[in-house]
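Attaching the record inline, Q. Sequence:
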Amino acid sequence: MEGQETEEREREAMFEALCQRCENRWLVKDLRLCQEGGGTE
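Structure, as predicted:
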């Protein structure tokens, strides 16, 4: 089960990185989701 937790962490880190890039040229929707702390799929 530890592997699953690591996967979640990696996904969160990736999402955060995406967020920071969103300001650049990503969808505002994604950026807003980011700021709200929502990682809903």
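The mean pLDDT is 68. DSSP finds two helices and no strands in the chain.

More tomorrow.
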